[in-house]
Amino acid sequence: xxxxxxxxxxxxxxxxxxxxxxxxxxxxxxxxxxxxxxxxxxxxxxxxxxxxxxxxxxxxxxxxxxxxxxxxxxxxxxxxxxxxxxxxxxxxxxxxxxxxxxxxxxxxxxxxxxxxxxxxxxxxxxxxxxxxxxxx
Length: 136
Known about the structure:
Elements: H1 12-18, H2 25-36, H3 40-59, E1 64-66, E2 70-77, E3 80-83, E4 90-93, E5 96-103, H4 105-118, H5 129-134
Helix pairs in contact: 1-4, 2-3
């Protein structure tokens, strides 16, 4: 990957048009295998190592920062009183830690650039001339 634009090889315009759904882990493994010319088994090992490393770091309370991509961290949720949807009975929900992902500046810019170039707006229509000129 180049240092200037490490995520450019993804061709986001094509990805937005081809896949409006979800990328699965198997599809991610296939993409890694294709891009770096490895076997699927080797690519699967790499993907699993990355995921396991992220989980292990979060488990130990560490923050993970991937420059240009984003960061993973834990957030705390306070205990609260909830409601059982079946019975309507009140239940105590204990405090807990949840993983949180914050996208990096470069990732946000690449996504927004791809959306503008593909002519997609958050509302689902095409951008107006003013939005397009403003880069929204």
